[in-house]
What does this fold into?
Amino acid sequence: MPDRAPHTILVIDDSPSNIDLLRAILEPHYRVKVATGAERALKIVASEAPPDLILLDILMPDVDGYELCRRIKSDARHRRIPIIFVTGLEDAADEERGFASGGEDYITKPIRPAVVLARVKTHLALYNQTRELETQVDLRTRELQQTRLEIIHRLGRAAEFKDNETGFHVIRMAHFSRLLAEAVGMDDADVLFQAAPMHDIGKIGIPDHILLKPGKLTPEEWCIMQTHATIGGDIIGKHDDPLLAMARTVALSHHEKWDGSGYPLGLKGEDIPLEGRIVAIADVFDALTSTRPYKKPWPVDEAVDWIVAGSGTHFCPILIEPLQQVLPEMLRIKDSYREEGGAQ
It folds into this structure.
């Protein structure tokens, strides 16, 4: 009885008679594709519609079946495709070599239709189970990743709410950070985008009479305020997870200054982690150009001029040109996530 959704079987054999025999056995149940050599076989496997299973002869004139199997299995995209060797070789060493090259099973000639169909059905069932399991794992992984990102954003917003800022700030500066990171060729730009919203999480630990003070802080109060960087690092903690590790680095380093006058460690120049230098600019740019209870937004050109003037003292000099390059996209993001009517 034909399958409701026929699988595709690729038969690789240089013998027309073998191909005809396997076609006759398989075509009532499956879609069948044929290749008589390695080049054609690899093209079919690499196509947009790869086979669900491969029947592979060992003795072929150009590339033998063992080597072809290794080539197919070396590509992670096709590693799961089951390969069954179909051959007249019956020595145990030949079978061992077939399994060592990545084959899943072995059918010896003369070909018996019932055996072929039984082996194909079994391995397709296992293949389907594996794919379904991988699909479920991928789905669950994406769900967990989304949940983790939501928690991170909510923690970032918790700090912003206490600081009388809005959730739009952490969204905008996260986008700005990714744009700058991409502009300088940072490999972990997407991770930085996810980590940046936690930059000020340590403000949760600052007393309200200091954090919300409308006037200028005293030197003693300012020292307490500066501890939010180390508090943030302590809240996030030390982790092997790349996202949380970067979030901790950002929390600890985004108030460091290029000339060493920042806090909490007084790092200088390239001793400041790149992600901290990037977030420093993204954070300041958004703060300057946004409305706050204590100030009106600066015009964009004045904010950029102020950052440029701080190059080599406050800000990393190599980030100034990338900032100017991505400024149009930053302004588009700023408009999309504006304080009134912006999407969240």
About this structure: DSSP finds 14 helices and five strands in the chain. The first helix runs from residue 16 to 26.
